[in-house]
Write a structure and sequence with these properties.
Length: 440
């Protein structure tokens, strides 16, 4: 993890939020290269989820919603994590993490923590574990009292459910259909940690698929399959770095009848990357009850009315970003020197081409290189100009950020309009004509 954190900072992928003020635990900013990678991941997900399905529609809901939404969804009462305080030093820890279990059952945690010492002070002074609500609060309007409390959404799913009827009607959608959303969510995590793995402000890519209850099992399996294929084929993650994890009854969220996570081999161990959940009619049923609006679906063929079931596909953007970087991180030796390179799939790489003149003090080379740079930039956008240091150093720099192609303009370019193009993974150079570059 240290290697990744250091690379992210050194090369402008991720910075600590408010770094000049000492940072803020659980909050991060994405830098120039980070935001490119992030956008590429989002775009790929949107493409796979929305554009490649005729029955999945996008929305972009508000972060703050009527608090009744979170009452109905069960978050105000039940969006909790088990917390344990240390009597000696006052530190607070996630009880399940400290106990090394997936269970959130307080009695079981109490037993497991009996002989544990506080990781902060080393004393055996842990109090009884208790539930802690992770919703972030704010107040709307000038008066800060109970009637003006609102919550920053803890997941994007909320406004998908409240828009179910709007989308169904406006898109004239029939079951099954899905609603997808990418956006920020906030969780007051007890102990944010492991870089961007567990943060308090996160971004999620979620899709809720509304189905006839009779299709529950088949649909659930289909979305599990989608999850695996998306992670391996679209994100380029090696199969040996991921595994399935099925939630037991003590682990499952308050809304889920079944849940399968994909775990990724993060440096701290195999941990949750994304989840596929069977939420049954929990959400629409509760929203119908609390709002008093009829959210039943009328099926013309059978003339029946029912509350649709929901299969959810949910992925943290920061976590997939981290997994993509870890999966791509490679070290090898080139001419007796250690080399770090990111073997990112080309469609995800922050920079697609780097363009350099062989020598930066030869105006004829620089002019020609500028011309090639401009041409590639118009076509691909994510193209970097790099004339700093010698060619070897430039290649190393581009390798570290995962640029798949480095183009160099040399004296031969001036004679026959060809350039060298170097492959990041093999380090092999080929000579190609300039026209070929934009027709690849
Ligand atoms: P965890 O068990 O790790 O706390 P969760 O089961 O609460 O996660 P979900 O509520 O299913 O997570 O959220 C969906 C996805 O959002 C997760 O699979 C994960 O990728 C991401 N996610 C959840 N909490 C965080 C967080 N605090 N920081 C970063 N990503 C998160």
């Amino acid at each position: 993890m240290e290697d990744i954190v250091s690379l992210c900072k050194r090369r402008g992928f991720v910075f600590q939020a408010s770094e000049i003020y000492g940072g803020l635990a659980g909050f991060y900013d994405y830098g120039p290269l980070g935001v490119e990678l992030l956008n590429n991941i989002k775009q790929e997900w949107w493409q796979a989820m929305v554009h490649e399905h005729e029955n999945i529609f996008g929305v972009d809901g508000a972060i703050i919603q009527n608090p009744k939404l979170w009452e109905a969804s069960g978050h105000i009462a039940g969006f909790t994590d088990p917390l344990v305080d240390c009597k000696n030093c006052g530190a607070r820890h996630r009880a399940d993490h400290l106990a090394g279990t997936d269970s959130t059952d307080l009695l079981e945690l109490k037993k497991l923590l009996t002989d544990k010492a506080c990781p902060s002070c080393g004393k055996k002074a842990l109090m009884e574990p208790r539930k802690y609500n992770m919703m972030m609060k704010t107040w709307i309007g000038p008066v800060e009292d109970d009637s003006s409390i609102a919550y920053l959404r803890p997941e994007t799913a909320g406004s998908i459910f409240t828009n179910y009827e709007n989308v169904r009607e406006t898109m004239r959608a029939k079951l099954p259909f899905g609603i997808a959303q990418i956006g920020k969510a906030f969780r007051n995590e007890i102990s944010p940690r492991d870089f961007i793995f567990r943060v308090r402000e996160l971004e999620q890519m979620e899709m809720q698929y509304f189905i006839n209850p009779k299709d529950e099992k088949e649909s659930y399996e289909r979305w599990r399959e989608f999850a695996w294929t998306f992670v391996t084929e679209r994100m380029g993650i090696n199969e040996e770095n991921i595994q399935w994890h099925e939630h037991g009854p003590e682990e499952r969220a308050h809304y889920a009848a079944a849940a399968h996570d994909i775990y990724f081999k993060f440096p701290q161990g195999f941990k949750e990357l994304m989840g596929t959940h069977d939420r049954t009619d929990f959400d629409l049923g509760n929203h119908q009850r609390v709002s008093g609006k009829d959210l039943q679906y009328y099926e013309e063929e059978t003339k029946q009315k029912f509350i649709p079931y929901v299969i959810e596909s949910s992925m943290g953007l920061g976590r997939i970003f981290l997994a993509v970087l870890i999966n791509a991180y490679c070290e090898d030796e080139q001419k007796g020197e250690k080399r770090i390179f990111l073997k990112l799939p080309e469609h995800l790489a922050s920079v697609k081409y780097a363009v350099s003149p062989l020598l930066k003090n030869k105006p004829e080379l620089v002019d020609k290189a500028r011309e090639v740079y401009k041409m590639l930039k118009e076509k691909y956008g994510a193209v970097m100009w790099d004339d700093n240091g010698n060619i070897g150093k430039r290649y190393r720099r581009q390798d570290e950020i995962g640029t798949p192609n480095c183009v160099v303009i040399d004296f031969e370019t001036l004679e026959n309009n060809t350039v060298t193009i170097r492959d990041r993974d093999t380090t092999e150079q080929k000579r190609v004509s300039i026209d070929e570059l934009t027709n690849r």
